[in-house]
């Protein structure tokens, strides 16, 4: 079946540090891949997505590239801000499917 | 326009009681989903609606859980005879089509004492 594995947190970084959150997936066929973010006290929001191999999703300075050869979709940001403190979820849907499968989530805290 | 709304935002109940959780999707969205977010299990899919029908109930954890959707809009998730392991945040999402981006509501935090 489909599954998503992401690095466990929590992750604490200083402002302006480089961020990487690793995510790998297991799926049959060609899934779509997503990163969702949950800010404190708020609902899940789609951060970025990629629907086919080698696609790069980007938003708010975050990027992730769909790597079929390594079945990965790592989230990166060059310079984090305090306002990026949140829980980040890697997720996927199977080819032609609607059901989101999520990773366990990674809590990021950015300190000034 | 308005996003997905859920009510109540918090619900505390006693073991054995029934609870109803409500979801108002974004107007015009045909697809509606329920997920559960718990400490032990992370985010899990529960059920999917297309219009008023639920072609996929595969994630419902037991027959104590049921859901309905009326008028292609509002959905209610009902948990009968609640147990402590039902404590979680219940999230609703909607999308224009079943393969479109899912927009999530703020969730209902259920605590079973």
Task: Tell me, rounded to a whole number, the average pLDDT of chain A.
Answer: 94
- Class per helix and strand makeup of chain A: mainly beta
Order of helices and strands of chain A: EEEEEEEEEEEE
Helix fraction bin of chain A: under 10%
**What is the ordering of alpha helices and beta strands of chain B?**
EEEEEEEEEEE
Oligomer: heterodimer
Number of helices of chain B: 0
Q: Return Rg of chain B in Å.
A: 13 Å
Shape label of chain B = globular
Q: How is the biggest beta sheet of chain B arranged? A: 7 strands, mixed
Which class do the helix and strand fractions of chain B yield? Answer: mainly beta
Shape of chain A: globular
Query: What is the average per-residue confidence, as pLDDT of chain B, rounded to a whole number?
Result: 93
pLDDT < 50 stretches of chain A: none
Estimated radius of gyration of chain A: 13 Å
Name the helicity range of chain B: under 10%
Could you explain the architecture of this structure?
The complex is a heterodimer of chains A (112) and B (113). With 112 residues, chain A is an all-beta fold. Chain A is built from no helices and 12 strands. In chain A, 0% of the residues lie in helices and 50% in strands. In chain A, strands 2, 5, 6, 10, 11 and 12 form a 6-stranded mixed sheet that branches. A 4-stranded antiparallel sheet of chain A has the order 3-9-8-7, with no helix packed on it. Chain A has a two-stranded antiparallel sheet with strand order 1-4. Helices cover 0% and strands 52% of the residues of chain B. The model of chain B has no long low-confidence stretch (mean pLDDT 93). At the A-B interface, strand 6, strand 10 and strand 11 of A face strand 4, strand 5, strand 9 and strand 10 of B.
